[in-house]
Amino acid sequence: MPSDRIRTALWVVPPIVAAVLLLPNPWVAVLFAAIVWGAGQEWTALMGLPHDGGRAAGVVLLPLMAATYVWGDLDAVGVLLGVALFWWVLATIWVVCFPVGLPGGASLRGRKLLVGLLLLLPAWLALITLHGSAEGPRWVLLLLVMIWLADAGAYYAGRRFGRRKLAPQVSPGKTWAGFWGGLAAGLAAGLLGPLLLRLEMPALGAYALTCLVTVAGSVVGDLTVSMFKRQMGVKDTGHLLPGHGGILDRIDSLTAAAPIFTWGLGRAQGWL
């Protein structure tokens, strides 16, 4: 793994982990809102909107996040996350069919902004809902570790064994070997994590399925963002994080993984 990626991870990951474990839920909501806002600015730039358009999108996104946090009804959260899961099913079909069906042109930027909203708002809502649940900070930490290890597993397995391309028209660097390596690493982290973090794990079958779909879904999140980058002819959504690109490049997997994991765990434990 390139040294830039390691150096960036060393100064980004520890503060995030400390914040998740030590800060109260309202402050974590603010922290994640700032991250999502930054990713939203990158998304609007990717869509070709001028700077004023990006700021206007932020003006819409932040009040929506504040409203969902203040509202905070778990039944409503469950419905919203269910809608997000349906969106990710559609996104999977979209990725498989790429480039057919992808909106293009300035007249369709509104649709792309809606896609950005579907990417970011449910992920933020899922993370703060999970963080506010029983043992929530440790569950959020486990989710992050699952995705990070899945990413690392995919990287190394892909480099060592990768031959057959996973989605050549969307992300030519990804291989089926990388997919299976990431799936194995993420699933192992998900199943061992509750033991190491002393978390109350729900029924093993339901929880294992949740972890499996979460890690697989994280790949769809990554590919969905890659699909739009491919259409716009760019490699990264930004340059804030050396070796990683932009904020959205770093959290693209989490945009799908967070709603899936929170919904699945909440249903399995009976609080959502």
Automatic annotation (TrEMBL):
Record's keyword annotation contains Lipid biosynthesis: yes
InterPro entries: PC_trans
GO annotation terms (biological process): CDP-diacylglycerol biosynthetic process
Xref: PROSITE patterns: CDS (PS01315)
Segments forming a coiled coil: none
Keywords: Cell membrane, Lipid biosynthesis, Lipid metabolism, Membrane, Nucleotidyltransferase, Phospholipid biosynthesis, Phospholipid metabolism, Transferase, Transmembrane, Transmembrane helix
Pathway: Lipid metabolism; Phospholipid metabolism; CDP-diacylglycerol biosynthesis; CDP-diacylglycerol from sn-glycerol 3-phosphate: step 3/3
GO molecular function, one term: phosphatidate cytidylyltransferase activity
Transmembrane segments: 12-40, 52-71, 77-101, 113-133, 139-157, 177-197, 203-225
EC number: 2.7.7.41
Main location: membrane
Family membership noted in the UniProt record: Belongs to the CDS family.
The protein, known as: Phosphatidate cytidylyltransferase
